Predict the structure.
Amino acid sequence: MKKLSPKDMINAFLLFFVIHSTQVGVGIHGFQRIVYQDAKHDAWISVLLIGVVSHIIVIFMIKTLEMYDSNDLYGIHQDVFGKWVGNLLNIIYILYCSTAFFSVLRNYIEVIHAWIFPNLSTWFLSASLLLVVIYAFTGGLRLMVGISFFSIILSVWLIPMLIFPFKFSISSSIFPILETNIIPILKGAYSMTFTIIGFELLNIIYPFIKDKENVKKHVHLGLLATTVLYLSIMLVSLTYFSGGELAKTIWATLTLFSIVRFPFIERFEFIAICYWMLIILPNLCLYMWAAYRGFSRLVNISAKKFIWIFSVIIFIFSIAVQTRTQINMINNQFAKVAFYIVFVYPIFLYVVAALKKKFTSQKEQKE
Amino acid sequence: MFNNKFKLSLSKKKSKVEREDEGKEQNVNMIPQGKNSFIQAIKDAVNNTADLIVKSIPPNLTLIYIENLVDDRTLNDHIINDLYKKPNESPELIKSLLSVPSLKMSNLLDDAVSSMVTGTVLIHVEGYSEVVLANIAARESRGLSAPENESQVIGSQVGFNESLATNVSLIRRYIVSPDLCNEKIKVGKRTNTTVSLMFIKGIASEDMVNTLRQRITGIDIDALIDSAVLAEMIDDNSLSIFPQLLLTERPDRFCDSLLNGKLGVLVDGSSMAIICPQSFIEFFQSREDQNLRWQIATFLRLLRFSAVFLSIFFTPLYVAALTFHYEVIPQAFLVPLSESRALVPFPPIFEALLLEIIIELLREAGARLPTKIGQTIGIVGGIVIGTAAVQAGITSNVLIIIIALSALASFTTPSYMMGNVIRVIRFPIIILAGFWGFYGIMLAFCFMLIHLLRQSSLGTPYMSPFYPPRLKDWRDSIIRLPIPFTAKRPTSTRAEDHEKFNPEPVNPEKS
C-alpha cells in the first residue's frame, strides 16, 4: 500500500462535518412515516434509541481501527480473514457502498420527479448529478471533505425553517409517552437504518486523519448533531401532523417545508429540494470514494478509469429502475443489508480482530 | 541585504552567461581599438539605426549613445564638459574623473551594446579595447496620479505608474526597512523586461519565494508588455475563469500584502502589481476596510459579499421562477409581475439574456469611449434603451430593475478582474436556469463550489480561510474585527513570523 502523503491528510476536526454530512441525505426527506408505522407517536424514542446505538457502534469501530493504526477496513479484512475471505468481504463492502451511492442518487431523482419536474428525463438528472460528482471526485479526498464542510455550513439556514411548522404544532399529540410497546419502538429504530447510516465511512477515511487522538470527540459530536437534528424534525412532525396524516405523508420533511412562507417567497420546498443537491453531494462523493478505495485494493486501477466505469454502471442502473415500487424495494432490501453491515458487523469484526490479536501476541510470547 | 540579494541574483545570471559562452568562445566580440572600426562595429550591432548619435571629442575620444534614451542635461554638464576639459586620458582615468553615479568598464562588444540600449553612453578612447559605460538613462514617466480602477474614499490617493523605479521607491517609502527584498529578473527574449520580485525577509515564506522565482524564471516568452500577462503565466491554473493572483495599482494595498507575508511582483512598464498568494475572499476586500471603523468595515464587507451573490443569482432566479416555478412567487406579487410581463412576447430566458447583453454593451462602450462622451452615452443609453425597451414591450419593468441591480452589485467588487468574472459567469447560469429552473441554478452552484475548491494560489488553498477551516483567520475575512483581534498574519501565507504585534498593550492610558 502506498504511503499517505501529508497533503492528503485531513484534520480530525473535519470528521464532524464528514460524519454529519454523510448521515444526512435523502433518508431525512421521509423517515417519519416509516418510523411512525411501527412506533406510532413514540417514534421519537426510536430515533433517540438508534442515535444512542450509533454512538455505541462507533465506539467499536474506532477500537477496531485503533488496533490497526493506519489501515482502513479493507486492509483490516485482509489481515484478519486472510486474502481470500478478506477480499470477498471487501467485494461485499464495495457493493454495499455502490448500492448506497445508487440509492441516494435514485431517491433524489425520484423526489425531483415527484415534486418539481414530473417529466424531466431520468437520464438527464442522473447524468448531470454524476458529472458533478465526477468533477468533485477527481479533485481528491480533501476536496470532497471540503464539500462536506460547505454542504453543512451553507445549509444551516434550512434548520430554522422548522420554526414555521412549529408554530402550528400541538405538543399534546406526543403524550402519553411510551404508549407503544417496546418491540414496535425497536422496530421503529430498526427502520431508521436507511436514514442514519453514513457514519460507517469512518472505516475508510480513518487512515487519512492527521491527529488520530481527536477522532473520537469529533465523530461523536457529528453523530450527536445528526441525532439532535433527526429528533427535532421527528418531534416537529409528530406534533404538526395528525397521526393518520403522517402515516400517509411520504415525504414529511418536504411537506413541512411547503408551509414556509416569506413575503417574497412561497412554496419553499421548491427551493429546498433543489438546494438538497448540495446536501447529497458529500454522500455521493464519499460513497464513491469508499468504493474506489476498496476496488483499488483488488484491482490495480487508476482513479480516472474507475470513476468512468463506475459512473456508467450507475447510470445504466438508474435508467433501468423506473417505478416508485422498484425504488422502494431497493430501499428496503438495502436497508436490511445495511443494518447488518453497519450495526451488527462492526461488533463481530471487533471481537474477531481482538481475539486474533490476543492469539498472535500469545504466540509471540511463547516463541 | 537588498544589495546582496541583487548582486547574488546578478552573479548567478552572469555565471550562467559565462557558461554559455565557454561553449562558443569564438563568438565573443571584443571592442576594436581603432576609432573607425569601433564606430562601425557599434553601427553594425544596432543595424545602423537612425537615432544612434556618434560624437567625437578631439583628439581621441568617441561618444556613442542612443538619442532620447539618455538624459541630455547630464550628458552635457557631467560628461561632455568634463571630457573637453581633460582629453587624452586612459579609460580608467576617465572613469575616476566623471561625476556620474553609475559607471562601468567593459571590453565586450555585446555588453556595451546591450547597456547602450538601456540608456548608457559609451566612451571610447582610441587605442584602448575598453569602453567606459556611463549610465545616464532618462526616466520618462508620467507623474503620480490617483488609482483609477481602485479608488477609495478614505486613504492614500496615490497609484503606481508605469516606471518600475518610481513604483519601487513608492513601496520603499511605505516600508522603510532593510528587510524589504527586491530581486530583479529579466523576462522576455525580445523585450528584456525587468521584473521585480519583492517580499519582506523574515515574514515571507522562503519556500514560496523559491516557487515564485522558479515560475518567473521558467517563463519562455518573447515579449512581456504588461503584468497581467505575467500573472496569467504564473497562475496555478490558467484555464480557470477565476484569477488566482491579485492585480492592484495601489501601493498601500501592495505593502499591506507584503506585510502579511505575501509576495509582490512589479513589471517595468506596467502600472499594475501582482500580489500572491491570494485567496478568493480577499478579492472582495478593499484596502479601505482597514481605514474605517471595524463595524463599518464589517458592514461594507457583508454588503459586498451579498452583492456578489445577488449579482450572480438574481437574474437566474427570476428566469427560473418565471419559467418553471410560478408557485414560489407570492400571490400579491404575482399580479404586478404578470401584468408587467403581459406584453412581452419572449420567454423569460430570452428576455433576460437580451437585457443582460444590452447592459454589457453599454458597459463595454462606456469603457472604450473617451471619458467625456462615455458618461453621456451611459446615461442616454441606459435611460433611453431601458424606457424604450419596456414601452416597446420587449422586456418587463421588473426585469429591468433586477438587471440594473445586479449590474450595480457587480461593481462593488474592489478587484476589476474579479468583477469581470462575476459579470461573465452570470450568462451560463441564466441559460441553465432557463432550461432546468432551480435545478439548473443549483447545478451551476455546485460546479462553481467544486471549481473554487479545486483552485489554489501559489500552492495555497483558494478557499482559505474557509476551507481548510482556519477559524482564527475568519476574524479578517467577510467580517473585520478590531485591530487588536487581528494580531496574527493569515495562515495561508505561511508567514515565518506569525505575529504582527503583541496584542496586549494597545492603549497604555487605560492601564
Summary: The CA atoms of residues 23 and 198 of chain A lie 4 Å apart. Chain A touches chain B through 36 residues (CB under 8 Å). Chain A has a mean pLDDT of 90. The two ends of chain A are 29 Å apart (CA to CA).
